[in-house]
Structures are given as structure tokens and as C-alpha cells.
Amino acid sequence: MRVVVLTSLLIGLSLPVCADEWKSTDAGEFTFEVAFEGESITGAFTAFDVELDFDPECLDSARLRVTVDLRAADMGDPDMNDVLFDPAWFDSGQFNHAVFVSDAIAKQAPGEFIATGTLDLKGTVKIVTVPFAWTRAEDQATMQGRLILKRTEFNVGSGEWATDDAIGIDVTLDFTIPLAPKE
Questions:
Q1: For an engineered disulfide with 141, which of 15, 128, 136, 167 has Cβ 3.0 to 4.6 Å away?
Q2: Which homologous superfamily does the CATH classification assign to the domain defined by 18-181?
Q3: Using CA atoms, how far apart are residues 42 and 34, in angstroms rounded to an integer?
Q4: The Cα angle at residue 56 between residues 54 and 58, in degrees rounded to 5
Q5: What's the distance, CA 24 to chain centroid?
Q6: What is the value of pTM for the model shown?
């Protein structure tokens, strides 16, 4: 028993813990864009939470968790919003949230990073890479990025909507997330 405790303690001491803890503020933006009958339409997720353990100079202990409330999707039109929550689309009655979790963040260029992790959306879990830019000014930071997902890989737009006849397969997600130190 002592050997296990001592070994665990030594392993814990050898891992670098250098990341600052950040949390999203209410001022962030998380939008999505898709083609509808050849025209681009945009919506937004109005409720989401980002937790980030991150120091760009020490990525060994970097962690990212993004939770998006699918029930808070807004396309600016009540009829379109109702359709979004149907079982063929987000099925928000059964799947309230989409969650992305990463513990593998790598530097791509100065101020540019990529987080590789799992996205759990509508009961489907896939590995996704999320590129983002990072800026920091004292006790404020911002993550900004763009990601393109194929909605059908997550069974979003199933049945008669599984083709790109009316609604495009590619969905562009744009985010600008102001962060503050986690308390």
C-alpha cells in the first residue's frame, strides 16, 4: 500500500501544472452558418460555457471543455427554431447539450493553437480538431476560431434531411469567447 501511495505521489509531483484556469464570460458569441436552398443562414447559441486550463508556454496541462445548450439555439425565427429542436435535428428533448472536451492542445503558430478532443453531439461522439487564436491582456483573454462540421456525421438533419438538397451538409461554427480567471 505504501508503495502505491508513494508512487502515485511521485508521479503527481513529476507532472507539470502550469496552466491558468479560465472561464467564459457572458459576452461571448457562438454562431453557426449553413446553406439553405443556396442561401446562407445564420443562427447563434445563446447559452454556452467554456472552461480552459491554459498557458500558451506550457501546454502539458492544458484542458478545454465547451458545453453548448442546444435548447438555446436561435435562428431569429420562431418557426425555424421549433424545427431545430425536432428529433430529426438537435432532438433537444433527448439531447440537451453538446460537449467538446480536449486535453491535447498544440501550438500551430504564435497565438494560434489547435485543440483535439471529443465532441458529443446528439449521442454521437467523434474526434474533432478545433483551431483557435488566443490573446491575453492581464486578467482578460479571448479565444476566437472557426470550425466546419459535417452535420450528418452527428445525425443532425436525419431522415429526409440527410442530403444536401435543401440544407447544406457543412455547418460553419464561429466563436469569440472572452475569458476571465476562474474563481
A1: 136
A2: Lipid/polyisoprenoid-binding, YceI-like (2.40.128.110)
A3: 7
A4: 80
A5: 12
A6: 0.87
Count other C-beta atoms under 10 Å from residue 7's C-beta. 10
Give the tens place of pLDDT for each residue, 67-91. Answer: 999 999 999 988 888 899 999 999 9
pLDDT tens-digit map of 140-159: 999 999 999 999 999 999 98
- Angle formed at CA 24 by CA 176 and CA 130, multiple of 5 degrees: 50
CB-based contacts of 167, cutoff 8 Å, min separation 6: 34, 35, 36, 157, 161
Strand partners, 145: 175
49 in Cβ contact with 66 (< 8 Å): yes
Within 8 A by CB and 6+ apart from 183, the residues are none
Beta carbons of 176 and 147 less than 8 angstroms apart: no
Boundaries of every domain in the chain = 18-181
Cell of 72: 438555446
Do residues 43 and 32 make contact, with C-beta atoms less than 8 angstroms apart? yes
Q: What is the pLDDT of residue 53?
A: 94
DSSP state letter for 160: G
Around Cβ 154, how many Cβ atoms within 10 Å?
22
SS3 82: helix
